[in-house]
Amino acid sequence: MSMCSMIREMWLSTFIFIALVLYLEILFFRLARHRKIVEPEVVGESDSEVEGDAWRMEREDSSEEEEEEIDDEEIERRRGMMRQRAQERKNEEMEVMEVEDEGRSGEESESESEYEEYTDSEDEMEPRLKPVFIRKKDRVTVQEREAEALKQKELEQEAKRMAEERRKYTLKIVEEETKKELEENKRSLAALDALNTDDENDEEEYEAWKVRELKRIKRDREDREALEKEKAEIERMRNLTEEERRAELRANGKVITNKAVKGKYKFLQKYYHRGAFFMDEDEEVYKRDFSAPTLEDHFNKTILPKVMQVKNFGRSGRTKYTHLVDQDTTSFDSAWGQESAQNTKFFKQKAAGVRDVFERPSAKKRKTT
């Protein structure tokens, strides 16, 4: 059960209870007015009371005698008066009841209006807007309403005009596209007509095809012969001894295409590798000097301070090393660097990696090592 329904039921029960209490109060007041009960009291008798009782008894006796003497007309008259008083009393009661009904109906209408108000407020679940005072000059008047209607009408006319312009533009585009398609079809038909080779000489085409086919066969045969020749040369070089192979290489030196010229690099000059692909092709672009300086390498960096004689100075990726000669720790003044008979004998017989021996060591030597 939601909070709104709980509040609604609470208010409804409160109004019903109040109406019931009012109705009971009015009912008790009515009964008390028409029936006043006097409780009995015990009082002392006096001479005046005794005299009053005697007078009352005498009066009753006289009244009885008078009643006997009253004729029938007087009885009818008294009965009519009693009926009239009863009717007046009944009218008064009806008036009181009408007043009570009006009060009850007013309370019920108030409760119903409040109930409807609460139900309406519950039905209005949308957020309420804050009331804002609008100045007189800012309020919408009849003239402004007419101006707004006129403006709305102008906007509708403008929208219709724009829609008509868009429709015309669309029709124009469709017409242009149709013309383009027709022209494209015409060009396609013209190209198909140009491809008609019925009138050409088939004999000439056949002769040209034979020439191309013979060239292809010749090229394939030359490639096959070159491959077989290369395989035979490799096999022949494998069968030669070491001395014969050296003599062969000295006699027939290897021809190097696009041999790079060993240039001289400047201090801290950047090195560019030219690569190894397509170097067998004899072209001018592969014969250029790749050791030539570029950009900032043209400047002489030896005149810079020592701290600036590094690569990428002032950058995060800089290095403290300049070149290999600067980092060389070879001591040419040591005993190992002197040219003597003992050093020469050691290098030829004992030193590893410097002897001119390319034979496989014996099994005994392999075991000892």
Helix and strand layout, with pairings?
Blueprint: H1 3-34, H2 47-69, H3 72-123, H4 142-194, H5 202-239, H6 242-251, H7 324-327, H8 341-349, H9 363-368
Helix pairs in contact: 1-3
Biased composition (Acidic residues): 61-74, 108-125
Transmembrane segments: 12-32
Organism: Phyllostomus discolor
Descriptive overview:
- Among the domains are: 1-30 and 89-121; 261-325, no CATH class.
- The chain has nine helices and no strands.
- It has helices at 3-34, 47-69, 72-123, 142-194, 202-239, 242-251, 324-327, 341-349, 363-368.
- The longest helix is centred in the middle third of the chain and has 53 residues, at 142-194.
- The two termini are 99 Å apart.
- Mean pLDDT is 77; it is low at 42-47.
- Residues 75-93 have a biased composition (Basic and acidic residues).
- InterPro entries: MFAP1 (IPR033194), MFAP1_C (IPR009730).
Pick out its properties.
mainly alpha; elongated; 369 residues
Kindly summarize this structure in a few lines.
The protein is mostly helical and 369 residues long. It has helices at residues 3-34, 47-69, 72-123, 142-194, 202-239, 242-251, 324-327, 341-349, 363-368. Among the domains are: 1-30 and 89-121; 261-325, no CATH class.
Helix content: 55-70%
Low-confidence stretches: 42-47
- The secondary-structure class comes to mainly alpha
Oligomer: single chain
Task: Report the order of strands and helices.
Answer: HHHHHHHHH
What is the averaged pLDDT score? 77
Based on CA atoms alone, the radius of gyration comes out at 68 Å
Count of runs of 4 or more consecutive helical residues = 9
Ends apart, CA distance between termini: 99 Å
Number of strands: 0
**Major sheet, described briefly?**
none
Shape: elongated
- What proportion strand? under 5%
